[in-house]
């Protein structure tokens, strides 16, 4: 059995679904079910004995110890995190509790569990920590992409909290010998993405006839990774990664945010044209940039390809088409996740529209 934390969120749920589509090894899934954790993401697993879901917090040490003792997983994959940059700017305390304190408590519970295992089980055990390219800071337009040896220079409360958790994982390996692996991914997109992030927000707002908010000049560049490609990469690192190593996972798709919006609009113009015959591009509006907004991220994913043979299966063109089509095909999921509190938050965050 493997133990997945945060497995009802966007990337975690896709990982659990991908894992059980490809393997029969059961999954113990712990998720706090905050605004972005959604059991509807896992509806297809209802009645599947290979999936055991527990609602809970990685900061709950007693719960972690009980689950580890009862289920004796061979590996932990830690997705649990507060991950939305804008939310963390407005309220950074939650991310410190989850991303830093929660990771510490998880590491301590896992360390004690691991130390009680027989030698053979200890050697086979793995703790895989899922992190982000944002810990590396920002890149100049012509700078080389982030490698695993790039300086860690976080610029937002979110990225600082993730960098702190990465350092804790590294320290628990070097101090206690805990067999850890860390992955740093670029921007994910795909099905089940909560509609406050750029791509799902563009799709959902466009279909609702609402403005498509773009921060600042829209020229912030990100590397885009289809979520199922990311999930397959994590599984590959878990299977064959070298202990204590960091693996960058990217899609080789650097694109400015405004280009992403234009691509989404073009696909919607094709797949679900507006009733008035106009392009969805007319709904694009520019809003005040957020504080400390990094200009460019880019992942150099040569190490994972060279050592483990992984590379993304999807191009951006194939992945974004699949993503837009999924949202068109699943309006019930979109309606379910758009609670009143979410709508209030979006109105607060994007309420200031530039002329």
Would you give an account of this structure?
The chain is of the alpha/beta class and 355 residues long. It has a domain at 2-189 and 225-253 and 293-314: Rossmann fold. 44% of the residues lie in helices and 15% in strands. It has helices spanning 10-22, 61-71, 85-90, 93-115, 119-124, 157-176, 198-207, 227-240, 257-271, 302-308, 316-329, 331-337, 340-349; strands at 2-5, 27-31, 51-55, 75-78, 126-132, 180-185, 187-189, 212-215, 221-226, 246-249, 254-256, 284-287. Strands 3-2-1-4-5-6-10 form a seven-stranded parallel sheet, sandwiched between helices. Strands 7-9-11 form a three-stranded mixed sheet. Strands 8-12 form a two-stranded parallel sheet.
Q: What secondary-structure arrangement, pairings included, does this model have?
A:
Layout: E1 2-5, H1 10-22, E2 27-31, E3 51-55, H2 61-71, E4 75-78, H3 85-90, H4 93-115, H5 119-124, E5 126-132, H6 157-176, E6 180-185, E7 187-189, H7 198-207, E8 212-215, E9 221-226, H8 227-240, E10 246-249, E11 254-256, H9 257-271, E12 284-287, H10 302-308, H11 316-329, H12 331-337, H13 340-349
Parallel strand pairs: 1-2, 1-4, 2-3, 4-5, 5-6, 6-10, 7-9, 8-12
Antiparallel strand pairs: 9-11
Strand content: 15-25%
Helix content: 40-55%
**What are the secondary-structure elements, in order, as H or E?**
EHEEHEHHHEHEEHEEHEEHEHHHH
Helices, by number, come to 13
Number of strands: 12
The shape, in one word, is globular
Mean pLDDT: 92
- The CATH class assignment of the domain at 2-189 and 225-253 and 293-314 is Alpha Beta
Largest sheet report = 7 strands, parallel
The CATH topology annotation of the domain at 2-189 and 225-253 and 293-314 reads as Rossmann fold
Query: What is the correct CATH architecture of the domain at 2-189 and 225-253 and 293-314?
Result: 3-Layer(aba) Sandwich
- Per CATH, the superfamily of the domain at 2-189 and 225-253 and 293-314 is NAD(P)-binding Rossmann-like Domain
The secondary structure category is alpha/beta
Strand order of the largest sheet: 3-2-1-4-5-6-10
Distance between the first and last residues' Cα? 55 Å
Structural Rg:
20 Å
Unreliable sequence segments: none
